[in-house]
Amino acid sequence: MSIESRSTRQTKLTITVMLLVGGSLIMLFPLFWTLSTSLKTIDQLMLFPPRWVPSPAQPRNFLDAMTVLPFHLYARNTMIIVGFNLFGSLLSSSLVAYGFARMRFPGRDALFIVVLSTMMMPYIVQMIPLYILYSRLGWINTFLPLILPTYFGVPFFIFLLRQFFKSVPEDLADAARIDGCSELGIWWRIMLPLSKPALAVIGIFSFQTHWNDFLGPLIYLTDANLRTLALGLYAFRAIPGQLPMFHLLMAASLVMALPVLLLFFFAQRYFIQGVVLSGIKG
Amino acid sequence: MAVSQQRRRYHWRKALTGYAFISPWLIGFLAFNLIPIVAVFYLSFTNYSVGSEYRWVGISNYERVFERDRIFPISIYNTIYYTFLAVPLSITFGFLLALLLNTKVRGMAYFRTIFYVPSIMPVVATTMIFLWLMHPQLGVLNYFIRGVGGSPVAWLTSPVWSKPSLILMSLWGVGGGMIIYLAGLQNIPEQLYEAATIDGAGVLRQFWHVTVPMMTPTILFNLIMGLINSFQVFTQAFIMTGGGPLNSTMFYMLHLYNNAFSYFRMGYASALAVLFFVTILVATILLMRSAKFWVHYEVD
Lengths: 282, 300
Prior knowledge:
The complex is a heterodimer.
Chain A: H1 2-38, H2 60-68, H3 71-102, H4 108-119, H5 123-136, H6 144-147, H7 155-166, H8 170-178, H9 183-194, H10 196-212, H11 215-220, H12 229-237, H13 246-266, H14 268-280
Helix pairs in contact in A: 1-13, 2-13, 3-7, 3-10, 3-12, 4-7, 8-9, 10-14, 12-13
Chain B: H1 2-43, H2 60-67, H3 71-101, H4 108-116, H5 123-133, H6 140-147, H7 162-171, H8 175-186, H9 190-198, H10 203-231, H11 235-240, H12 252-262, H13 266-294
Helix pairs in contact in B: 3-7, 3-8, 3-10, 3-12, 8-10, 10-13, 12-13
């Protein structure tokens, strides 16, 4: 009896491990193939059957890919947008979240429900009026439409930080109040330092969102010199008449994905935390 | 008397500080949400186009949507096709994957990372990768298919295969949903399973009567977010197929984008946006109403 149950447990474990390994291979294959392609010479692209490991390997592809179009410029543009958004989302969302978490004022809970419902608001609805507004202001082909809105608080981040602030003991703030600290001082000196993990989650989310964003830059940036990496990669693919440049395209794709992947590996804990928090509210 | 007046003033000051703290969001909500929503309704009754005079045209934009826009019904069909396959598939796979990754196996942290990583890839990079994987002549997917004796698939260049190809690609990112289910699974109290075991429930019954009910709130959340996102599917089709071949990937959002930013028919595109808004609103409300029939909420 016990031997039998042990053997069924063994079978179960074997099946689980087989599924895990098989699934992992499928998930990893596109990345492996991208890396392999990015190191190939152009004639190796057309080999059939394909050559799994490039030989000769041609690391120069990465340099070529980055210079076919001025990717250094695109990287700079992306970093400007990402940087300003990072700062703005941390600053404004934490201020607003503090108000919702710790202040008492009429209409607070109703307004917070409005915050939650704007989280589900599809961008497609506001897109056209906002485009008209920005074009009247002369902001097309500037980074302002891609940066400014963040400085008015990001609903999802407000939600995350409010949850976090609520878990900080009130006594700390009370003690500071008795010492004559203003609410702004409490936010800056007590809440923010205590909320570093939550702020890290938000920073990562903000970075990822704006690094990956395609539709926003597509609409607001038509000047080739203002392209972000996402737009640059799209433009690269659209260069006409140059059939298989896939080795360069894969190299450029990897370069674009690399910062996000690196961030993930160094801050995995915060990534998962943020995603998990976002799901639990449902 | 004087004390209560003082207290009232104190309360007012506190309230004002509160409003001051949330004022960035309040202003932003008005400027970036409320006013644009009102504006899009107004614009949908005009013939607004960039750089020219515009006037009120009544409901003629809406008439045109339903009577003369040949692409509109196609884009609705494509979007529904995509949503009704991609969302249930990603929920099913995400959930099954979470179950698998919730077992106790050595090195599980590595497996979780591997399944999660594709979902954080920039969407533009992902589309480039799949353009190459799904290349009709040189793509490695067709090499595998030939290897098992199948005939090569035209993937994105075939009107029949283009939508399934995009759905297949979306499943590479299934890890994003998986991680949320995984968190949900780990939040189920162990006592529930212990109690079920004592009552003589086997593995399968425990799954149906403990795991699934406890996970329904998470499934509802992923269902609503999945629906809203799939209805807006855009970037993949815009980059990979441009809506083709033969409009087979002309999704609603792409149709709206083309009208607004390729033909600069902003008034007309606003009408499309209003219809979208109403649809999403109704769908979300219906889903949330349906919750009481199938979503299990813990009462504590």
